[in-house]
Amino acid sequence: MRMRRAVSALLSVYVSVPVILYLFPWILGQLIYAHLVRFPFFVDLSQPEDLLNHTHNFYLDTEEGVSVGVWHTLPAGQWEEAAEKSAEWYQRTLGHGQPVIIYLHGNLGTRAINHRVQLVKILSAAGYHVFSLDYRGFGDSSGEPSEAGLTRDAVSLYHWVKSHSGVSLVCLWGHSLGTGSVHLLQAKLSSSRSAVDALILEAPYTRIGDVVVNHPLSKVRPTLSSPLLILHAEDDYMVPHHMGLKLYEIALQAQRERHTGVPVEMISYKAELGYSHNDVYLDPNLSDIVG
């Protein structure tokens, strides 16, 4: 009798879950993006100086009715000049020649989460301008997240940065869910015969269906028109390490088949380091790796 009840309960769940997702598709979006969890709480995202020095907050209109919050953190060489400077001054610094990283974070929370802030500090100290974006629906950004929407936000910020940075190198850094946005942005640029200067994928996935459920952002395949660096911890509990390895193998195969000569590298972090899904920033050599 107990076995029959257990089987009946499992069948009910099996049947009801697809129906619930069909009737309430916003649940699927919440599972993928977790954007309503605006952690850390009680942080004023318009005041980044509470968490990050030498940082200016601004809002970028990526389409009608959608405005996304962005932090611009200066490279180390410009820290001393930054006190009480205007938004226009921050914008002008992009034309001074230092390289730029656009950081596209993973799901859940905002650009103020500690591991994101710590990574930005490292990249800034290594000499990069860093742009931290909260996609639509995340943090203080308006709108609702979607595959097309996240891509549009990333593309808009990329073009804004390029329009102000002159000949400076502009790189994309994607973490977890953000690696999908990096791929889609790069694919969009490749279709117009342009390419990002470099891609860094931290904890990338090959199929979101293997992580949560099937979803339009389901496959990441590198186009390999830009140098690629993959960072992945062996003890990643969220996106298994074998996904990063698989992506690395796909990139190497594309490199061989197309005879591109584009650099492809993967760094795996041993499980005993405890970096897991979010803490690659703890690598003491990280600034040298990306420098």
Which keywords apply here?
291 residues, alpha/beta, Rossmann fold, eight-stranded mixed sheet, 8 strands, 17% strand, membrane, phosphatidylcholine lysophospholipase activity
Quick description:
The protein has eight helices and eight strands, in the order H-H-E-E-H-E-H-E-H-E-H-E-E-H-E-H. By secondary structure, it is α/β, with parallel strands linked by helices. It comes from Salarias fasciatus.
Q: Overview of this structure, please?
A:
With 291 residues, the protein is an alpha/beta fold. The protein has 2 domains: 1-33; 36-290, Rossmann fold (3-Layer(aba) Sandwich). Helix content is 36%, strand content 17%. It has helices at 2-23, 26-33, 87-93, 114-125, 147-165, 177-191, 241-258, 286-290; strands at residues 55-63, 66-73, 100-104, 129-133, 170-175, 198-202, 228-233, 264-269. An 8-stranded mixed beta sheet has the order 1-2-4-3-5-6-7-8, sandwiched between helices. Helix 5 crosses helix 6. Residues 99-204 form the AB hydrolase-1 domain.
